[in-house]
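Please, structure for the following, as tokens.
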Amino acid sequence: MSISKLAEFGTRHVAKGIGRLATEVIESGSGSYVTMVSGRKMLDFTSGIGVANLGHCHPAVTKAAQTQAGKMVHAQVNIAFQRPYLELIQSLLPLMPHKSLDTFFFWNSGSEAVEAAVKLARHATKKQNIIVMQGSYHGRTFGTMAMTRSKTVYGENYAPLMPGVFSVPFPYCAQCSIATRCDGKYGPENCCMDPVDQLELLLKRETAPSDTAAIFIEPVLGEGGYVPAPPGYLKRVREICDKNNILLVADEVQSGFGRTGKMFAIEHYDVRPDILVVAKGIANGFPLSGIVSRKELMDTQKPGSMGGTYAGNAVSCAAGIAVAKAFQDEKILENVNARSKELSGMLQKAKADHPDMVYDVRGLGLMLAVEFVGGKGYAAKVQAKCMEKDMLILTTSIYDTLRFIPALNITQEDMARGCKIIQESIAEVAAS
């Protein structure tokens, strides 16, 4: 098929419900770049929406997958143990944010892992209700659509969805009615903690602790705008969970595996989750997800109640082992924190240079965002300018926000190039 016909074919035959940034066709990827079938090479600050954390086609990950594909591609998890599954657990145990997280179940996608966490929480507590955060994103399946509160498009016209889900405000200080009206008294470093009060009220008004199985929370809101939880907030939520026999579930599908400068974002807050949800960067592009919890919780489930045809695929697990090794061998977290200073520094300068356009800069590690003054579509305009300059970048949130998700091993040179493109694009939109 000719290059000119590929995109047209895709538009005609690929489901319309799949939104996308561009109609170009990607031919290949290497490191921080993707190359289109047209030959156009683009700097990728999307990393497959936080999946290719170690860049496209990382050599060690690719080699591990190729080797495993020659041994065993599919070893069904409900039939027998398979070596890569067990060796992946062995690789991940030392990386867990708390020593109590010692028992694993691997699945395929982030949504499936979230649903596995719901199953575990409901089964272990013998309670039904789930609390999620406003602005949260947990997936697009029927269970996770009910839990996703970042945009109505994900659940619009698909009801009825899973019952028993309640939502409470997340401490999003840039849009908090208290923080924005207190003349600087409260903010991201000194949260008013009204969301804690709202959580306690929810447990009194709508879902009693005796009916509430778990609170699901992204330590850094993803689709909701790349908003890190402020200091102290997660500790307060942990206290509420302990007091009321409610499980705390950390959804680290997007914020995990080094994205925020620590292996898991929850480590920034020194809080123990009862269940950890992982996916995306765990295998650098190979379909793999999972939940991790303490053995006594996981052992409440009867054999046969969990599983799946492709759950913990052998090739994906082999890729995951290589990812874990690369983090150590290549000092990935050191690079994340060094490059984070460069990117966040540029964004802060853009805010200082364009105060009437740039409203907020936030994030952790290489999970950063810039929120623009609302109502003028600045994010989409800057995104378009970046694409003109051969750079892929994504918007997010119901607010006017750009998010930055470069590869965690991006070089200083490529980060400098990306910063230059973003800075120029913001300046050009500001001048237009």
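The longest helix spans residues 332-353. The chain has two domains: 3-57+331-431, 72-329.
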